[in-house]
Design a protein that fits this description.
The chain is of the alpha/beta class. The chain has helices spanning 4-8, 19-28, 80-95, 121-131, 143-149, 193-209, 217-226, 235-248, 258-266, 270-291, 304-307, 311-324, 334-346, 352-366; strands at residues 42-48, 52-59, 64-71, 103-110, 138-142, 156-162, 166-172, 175-181, 299-302, 329-330. The chain folds into two domains: 4-150 and 332-366, 2-Layer Sandwich (Nucleotidyltransferase, domain 5), CATH 3.30.420; 156-330, ATPase, nucleotide binding domain (Nucleotidyltransferase, domain 5). The chain has 14 helices and ten strands. The radius of gyration is 21 Å and the shape is globular.
Length: 367
């Protein structure tokens, strides 16, 4: 199963660049906007990711007036009916009492984006927006595009994402034009939450069976995967319980252990610190392989590892600032970037102050 980063980063025909193409895309998703009709009202931004769906409704002036969340919606990881249900739930919550017909534009940043435009899943996913009562064009783009847009109003530049997966992407308009990594948990996503979680489990096995040094990660990981009250007493039973827990769940679930590594490193644990150091080096290699020494364009950091407080985000920010000679931009939630793109698609000359109001409004809502 490819990661969200891997699936969502490929350019897709669902991200048209011309007005005519957008009209065609809108017709394909059930839109009924007539050519030349004035676009007023509100916009809807949706981030359909590998950990959750978030939807944001905003005015064209940048005021956030509705938010909704639901469970993950990556069609490469879930049955399509579940994806549709989660998308619909988040959109319904965000709209609240707002009439769907008043929504003038929608942008969806999608993990597993190819499923939205190809194969048997495309029709069911497109029907989601029709069933929600939306009558405007719906533009589906890679989640790297909305992540970038959540950090800057500028139309082109680069984004480094490190959450469950990891990828660096070059964004131009509504398309990804180049990428580094994002190859999924099995063969790529270096330095990602999954990569860190896997290293944590390996370090605990090594500590328990005598191959490695003792680490704070051992009790933390065991308590997390078995439950605080169910950690076995004997080392042999601990190894067996950890092994069973790892193989009983989906591999990508190991990403949930990444915060334990950051916490242990901050507490002075040497094993955890080595994992953090290696993750930072891998993420730096991914970012700089894409951006080189170019400091003329914005570089946005997105994903929980890079935007939440912790040693990984702080060190990546420091090193990238040193490398590029300027501080990277920190992304707001991806749904905010999607809402900005929806407004920009309607009005390509939109004022950057709208972006500032959107991101500020998102921060207030999060608080």
């Amino acid at each position: 199963m490819p990661s969200a980063s891997a699936a969502a980063s490929a350019p897709t025909p669902a991200a048209p660049s011309s007005d005519a193409a957008r009209a065609d895309a809108g017709a394909a998703t059930g839109a009924a906007t007539a050519p030349g009709r004035a676009r007023t009202g509100v916009v809807l931004g949706v981030e359909a990711g590998s950990t959750l769906v978030e939807a944001v409704v905003a005015t064209v002036e940048g005021e956030v007036i509705g938010r909704g969340r639901s469970a993950l919606a990556n069609p490469t990881a879930l049955p399509i009916p579940d994806v549709v249900a989660h998308l619909s739930d988040a959109v319904r919550k965000a709209l609240g009492s707002i009439a769907p017909a008043s929504v003038a534009g929608v942008v969806v940043g999608a993990a597993g984006i190819l499923r939205y435009s190809r194969g048997s899943s495309a029709e069911a996913l497109a029907k989601t927006w029709v069933d929600a009562g939306l009558t405007c064009p719906v533009l589906v783009v890679a989640d790297a595009v909305t992540a970038f847009a959540a950090g800057t109003p500028r139309p082109s530049g680069s984004v480094l994402i490190a959450g469950v997966g990891s990828i660096a992407a070059r964004v131009e308009g509504e398309e990804v034009t180049a990428r580094i990594d994002g190859n999924g948990w099995l063969v790529g996503d270096d330095g990602s939450g999954f990569w860190i979680g896997r290293q944590a489990v390996r370090a605990v096995f090594a500590a328990l069976d005598g191959r490695g040094e003792q680490t704070l990660l051992a009790p933390a990981v065991l308590a997390t995967v078995t439950g605080d009250d169910a950690v076995p007493q004997s080392t042999e039973d601990q190894i067996s319980a950890l092994r069973d827990a790892v193989y009983d769940g989906p591999p990508i679930a190991l990403a949930a252990l990444a915060p334990l590594v950051s916490a242990a490193a901050s507490a002075g644990d040497r094993v955890a610190q080595r994992i953090v150091d290696r993750a930072v080096s891998l993420l730096m290699a991914t970012a700089t392989a894409l951006t080189g020494d170019n400091a003329d364009e914005p570089l946005v950091l997105a994903g929980s590892l890079l935007t939440a407080p912790g040693p990984i985000g702080a060190e990546v920010q420091r090193r990238l600032a040193e490398h590029h000679g300027g501080t990277p931009l920190i992304a707001a939630p991806g749904a905010v970037g999607a809402a900005w793109l929806a407004a920009r698609v309607m009005d390509p000359g939109i004022d950057a102050e709208v972006h500032a109001r959107l991101t500020a409004g998102a921060a207030c809502s999060e608080g």
